[in-house]
Please model this.
Amino acid sequence: MPALKIADRATDAETDTEKVKLLRKVFFPQPPEADLADIYQNPNQRTQFQMPPVNDTEVRAAIKKAPPNKAPGYDTLPNRLWQMLAEPGSRSETRFVPLLTAIFDAYVQIGHNP
Model:
């Protein structure tokens, strides 16, 4: 490889080491240091992000969307059972969906992901 011309210097990069340093400097320059002054105004105060509450419509949509013959976990209850319990107009739907909504909302509010 021929010598590489350096615009700001009188000498060229002739050795392999000089060429590598020059190419690294040109193609992979050091990024400027980030200004983080606006992030930490008060290190003792944290901003807590509040999730919106879970509602019955979201719970019904999630249950309806689940594949009916799959088991969600160790309880081995197929999703079809959940769908039958949450089916609009069923006797259990009026109690089952609000109960699940309260449980899921509590998980979201405390930040727990089982």
Summary: The CA atoms of residues 21 and 27 lie 10 Å apart. Residues 56-110 form one domain. The first helix runs from residue 16 to 27.
